[in-house]
Amino acid sequence: EAAVAEAEAQLAEVRNGTRVEEIDKAEAAVAEAEAQVRFYESQLEDSIVRAPFTGIITQRYADPGAFVTPATSASTASGATSTSIMALAKGLEVLAKVPEADIGQIKPGQTVEIVADAYPDEVFEGRVKLIAPEAVRERDVTLFQVRLDIETGQEKLRSGMNVDLTFLGEKIDNALVVPTVAIVTKKGQTGVLIPDDENKAQFREVTIGATIGNKIQILEGVDAGDKIFLGLPEGQKLEDIIGD
């Protein structure tokens, strides 16, 4: 701004009886100085990082005047645990990371049961607020971030607590379920191990549905009453069966 003022003063002097060429030169200097002001104002604006929501500052990652690089952490949201609590100005919010296989069963407004490690005998209630439109990958696993509003227990729950979540879906009547430990994968296909005529394990592809605790719903592939292996018969190795 000082450069602009100086250029304008010089321009005023030039106009008081100077050649046209010098006037044009002075006007160009003013325009250049104004352009530099706009550039530095833009640079200053870019130096300010604003949160997309109002909230409470719980941790500072750099001190005023400190040198930062593009690798300097600015928040913990992207690296939060699969189910952790964030502090916001309007209350508390749970940030969860849900596997791709389960995200289709989660809808905005869905009721969620919340159990905190600090209060293992209490069940708090929450509700799905937002499902991220884009997945993230962590350790070769595709995940979607899900934000939950906490509706009960705000007087006990604190930012940074770890919690277990149960997403309550529609009631399923006569569902066929198997223990999750029975599920195996063969060349990208999901299946279970069933006995053949010699009681040896063989792979059978299945279509899975919802996961409920330590059980998983089977939509196609086996019927009620079919036998499946939860462990391998003696003398058999899993790699020999799935043949990767």
Describe this entry's structure for a reader:
The chain is 20% helix and 32% strand. It is α+β, with helices and mostly antiparallel strands. The strands form three sheets. Strands 1, 2, 3, 4, 5, 6 and 7 form a seven-stranded antiparallel sheet that branches. Strands 8-13-12 form a three-stranded antiparallel sheet, with no helix packed on it. Helix 1 packs antiparallel against helix 2 (20-46). The chain is elongated and about 110 Å long.
* Structural domains: how many: 3
Distance between the termini: 69 Å
CATH topology of the largest domain: Elongation Factor Tu (Ef-tu), domain 3
Name the CATH class of the largest domain. Answer: Mainly Beta
Strand content: 25-35%
**What's the story with the biggest beta sheet?**
7 strands, antiparallel
Question: Based on CA inertia axes, which overall geometry fits?
Answer: elongated
Individual helix count: 4
Number of strands: 13
Provide mean pLDDT, rounded: 80
Question: Structural class of the secondary elements?
Answer: alpha+beta
Order of SSEs: HHEEHEEEEEEEEEEEH
Percentage of helical residues? 10-25%
Q: Which parts are unreliable, with pLDDT below 50 for 5 consecutive residues or more? A: 72-81
The radius of gyration over CA amounts to 31 Å
CATH architecture of the largest domain: Beta Barrel
* CATH superfamily heading of the largest domain: Efflux pump adaptor protein, beta barrel domain
Q: How are the elements arranged and paired?
A:
Blueprint: H1 2-15, H2 20-46, E1 83-88, E2 91-99, H3 100-103, E3 111-116, E4 124-131, E5 136-138, E6 141-150, E7 163-167, E8 177-179, E9 184-186, E10 189-195, E11 201-205, E12 207-212, E13 215-220, H4 238-242
Antiparallel strand pairs: 1-2, 2-6, 3-4, 3-7, 4-6, 5-6, 8-13, 9-10, 10-11, 12-13
Helix pairs in contact: 1-2
